[in-house]
Specification:
single chain, alpha+beta, 32% helix, Nuclear Transport Factor 2, Chain: A
Length: 142
Amino acid sequence: MNEHIVDRALRLLLSHDMEGFSDLWAPDGVIEFPFAAVGYPSRIVGREAIRQYMSGYSDILDVRELTSKTIHATADPDVTVAEFELAGIAPKTGKPYSMRYVAIITTDGSQIRNYRDYWSPLAAAEAIGTTSELTAFGGGAA
């Protein structure tokens, strides 16, 4: 089970270490957003593309607290389902931010190969005050 990778990813998000967060991915790792809004990327391929995508995250969403977390093992030891909620503020609006996520994470045992992120871009847009900024940033990703 990949709970140690999920825990590390959440710690890095909470410490605003987007470089470290991006380093969790394999060089050809992927993030997918099945609920991507129009104009929002639905798939980001490669560690360096993920690093670029995550580089402005803390400017848009200041994640301060993990309010809940449940990890589910699957029949495949390389696949984990993580349910979690993050809370914080949107720095540009000062509005509180609380978002529930479900992520299906596939690893090779040490690096993330695929991270399928189910979250609501519209809920994030409400906190930051605009969908255009969310689209320019690239999104929520946790």
